[in-house]
Amino acid sequence: MRLQIDERRCKGCNLCTLVCPYRIFKPGKRANLRGVIVPELDRPERCANCRLRDLYGRTLCGMCQMICPDQAISWVKEEEHVPKKVAIEY
Amino acid sequence: MSEEEWLRQDRLPHIFCAGCGNGTVINCTLSAVEQIGWKKQDTIFVSGIGCSSRAPGYISTDSLHTTHGRALAFATGIKLANPGLNVVVFTGDGDLAAIGGNHFIHACRRNIDITVVCMNNMIYGMTGGQGSPTTPLGGLSTTTPYGSKEPAFDLCGLASAAGANYVARWTSYHVRELTRSILTGLETPGFSFIESLVQCPTNYGRRNRFKQVTDQIEYFRSHTILVEKAVRMKEKGEEVPADMILSGEFVRRNRPALGVRP
Q1: Residue B189, Cβ density class (10 Å: 0-12 exposed, 13-18 middle, ≥19 buried)
Q2: Between helices B155-162 and B101-110, what is the axis angle to 10°?
Q3: Which residues of A touch B177 (CB under 8 A)?
Q4: E strand or H helix at B158, and its extent?
Q5: Per residue in A21-65, pLDDT tens?
Q6: pLDDT level of residue B260 (50, 70, 90 thresholds)
């Protein structure tokens, strides 16, 4: 499972940057179309709790999603990793 | 079903200010309702007037948005008319402690089977930041520009004394504990009261040296102390600092409840 921030709902309060134990969220720099400075995800694949959600079948940490006052943080299913065949030409 | 399905998607994003803690409490309540497995058609959310009382409008169940302070009176009516319904009341501190104070103590006395989630932001947020009965001593607001001179209302103490079956207090920082407490409150037959201190960045934090939303959450984190720890400190003869917020479960008992199907 992968984290995502819904830019239409986020109001830029940066509470997620405070609670994440992996510091996945960092304060954003650029305002979006609504003028809100939405936090950015910094290498979200580092979050072990998000990766192991499916294996354990329950929410493991989920602090960012629970504390988000705007219900903007959620998880999306990741596609299966398909190994690509690379042809190397000499 | 997930929490997302309990929300009215077409109403989001909600009108709460950026960083308002009411949204967090909605998350926790929906998570608890989700865990207990109630059905949408058997659940009713009731609220009065205020910032916090806009919460049922974002939840896709039947809800009542009632007059100021009278949410508990309406909830009592619902529960007594149809004890099969599960009633959850969202109120704010001005709604519950100030204008609805009498309804509150009598609902506790009757011990009706409802769950009350009080989002205490320590100020009247919607009307422009007037001081409420729960504004802490020295807190600045538009009606207390030199700091509040009155002691604040201890809502949990009031509910315990008036006879509620389950009383707990957490803050919007303690989301896991708050969810667990709300779940216990929903399971408990009889009146369960869960107070949650929430941040109000626009009207409280701005006037009380919390420039950022995260500052007030940090304050909640560092200035809460568990009830059990406070009791232990008192037994050892240590002084509990006066500005500490007591949090945790205050009361869990089994008084006969009203409105429960035998």
Answers
A1: middle
A2: 40
A3: none
A4: helix B155-162
A5: 999 999 999 998 889 999 999 888 888 888 888 888 888 888 999
A6: confident
Cite the beta strand spans of chain B per DSSP E: 43-47, 62-65, 86-92, 115-120, 166-171, 192-197, 224-226, 245-252
Tokens of B64: 């009542």
pTM of the predicted model, to two decimals? Answer: 0.92
CB burial class (10 A; 0-12, 13-18, 19+) of residue A29?
Answer: exposed
Q: So what's the pLDDT on residue B46?
A: 95
Residue A74 backbone phi and psi in degrees, to 5: -150, 175
Whole-number Cα distances in Å, B251 to B220, B231, B247 = 22, 14, 12
Q: Which amino acid is at B59?
A: I
Best interface-test mutation with A: which of B213, B219, B220, B221 has the largest number of A CBs within 10 A? Answer: B213
B166 at interface of A, judged by CB pairs closer than 8 A: no
> In angstroms, how far is the first alpha carbon of chain B from the final one?
29
Q: Which of chain B's residues have a Cβ under 8 Å away from the Cβ of A12?
A: 18
Burial (Cβ within 10 Å: 0-12, 13-18, ≥19) of residue A81: exposed
Please give the class, per CATH, of domain B3-252.
Answer: alpha beta
Flag whether residue B213 sits within 8 Å of chain A, measured between CB atoms: yes
Give the Å distances, CA to CA, from A18 to A39, B15, B20: 11, 23, 15
Please name the amino acid found at residue B46. V
Number of other residues whose CB lies within 10 A of the CB of residue B143: 14
Rounded to whole angstroms, the Cα distance separating B145 from B76 reads 38
Q: Is ipTM over 0.90?
A: no
Q: Please, what are the domains in chain A?
A: 2-76 (3.30.70.20)
Q: In a mutagenesis test of the B interface, which of A26, A53, A66, A74 is the best target, namely the one with the most B β-carbons within 10 Å?
A: A66
Query: How far apart are alpha carbons A60 and B187 in whole angstroms?
Result: 23
Residue type, B98: A
